[in-house]
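Q: What changes when iron/sulfur cluster is included in the input?
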Amino acid sequence: QCAAVCPTAAIKVKTDMDKVWRSLYDPSKRVVVQVAPAVRVALGEAFGLQPGEDSIGRIFTAIRMLGFDAVYDTCVGADLTIMEEAKELAEKLENGDDRFPLFTSCCPAWIRFAETRHPDILPYISTCKSPMEMFGAVLKEYYKEKDAEEEKSTISVAIMPCVAKKMEAVREEFKRDGIPDVDYVITTKELIRMIRESGIQFDEIDPEAPDMPFSISSGAGVIFGVTGGVTEAALRRLVQEKSTQALRDIKFSGIRGMEGVKEALLELNGRTLRIGVVSGLGNADDLIEKIKSGEEHFDFVEVMACPYGCIAGAGQPFCHKVDKKERIDGMYRSDKAAPIKRSEENPVIYTLYNNGGLLEGREHELLHVHYAGAHAHE
Ligand code: SF4
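A: The predicted holo structure follows.
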């Protein structure tokens, strides 16, 4: 079934809402769901809340009322991404290969753009899967044993601000043994429809917490939803000094703000890093051309296809620029209120990586991806 997303119905996007509903009513299925960071500051607008108001707790409640078996926050996946991406950047800096920067990899529309327009830079794009795909792989692994014991199969759903995530979820690279790690992607707008269809009074329900054992995430994970957030989170992980002042220095380094292209210079372990933050594919195209011609040099470049980042994704309710600013401010407020600011301080992450945790020795298999075209240009 298709749902029109443009008034002329010229562009149609596949929706899996019916399949999700059917799974929810199927007793042989365990339906688990993750909710992306940017959804929390936009979904409430459809129910009379202010743009930027963090409604993640109510979203968890509403999702449970819809019948999902377990609800999780994709910020845990973002924390995983930071652990792996920061490691990759540190290794790249050590190896001294600095012709091209390390480009981020969490935005599937950016990956598609690079594959079609700049395939020669694919080897310089981080091999980290997106937070959605990292967490999807972890969830499928986590439920494997339980599924066998209870003779169930786990269906993994992701609530995303993004239409391109639907395309990412069905890519061959994100299937293991032919089965996708994320079965269905539902956009913020589609979740709003599901909540309305169920008659849930979103503005009247009380907030709830996500499920154990993935119930804790960091503020670094939250800010993935805004342009500059991935970079800020990675720098929090990489800088040796872990003080409040160090957090402030990163915050005011130039990576925050609504500009389509931002630059920052940052001291990292005795070296000055030049960092680029780009949102909007036109801006990315211009910057890549400058890097290729030698006019510009960066060590790290974050690219998000949507101007301002995922808070303004095509799966989010439409809003004007002033409300986008409110959504951005809302993301930073949520980060400010988070007791854990750095991904490596998240105990869930520690448990996954250590003492026989699910990821110990399996980081490459579960958290990294190699796009087919990347090797041809190495
Ligand atoms: Fe999706 Fe846009 Fe976010 Fe990219 S920036 S992941 S296209 S919402």
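Observations recorded in class: The first strand starts at residue 2 and ends at 4.
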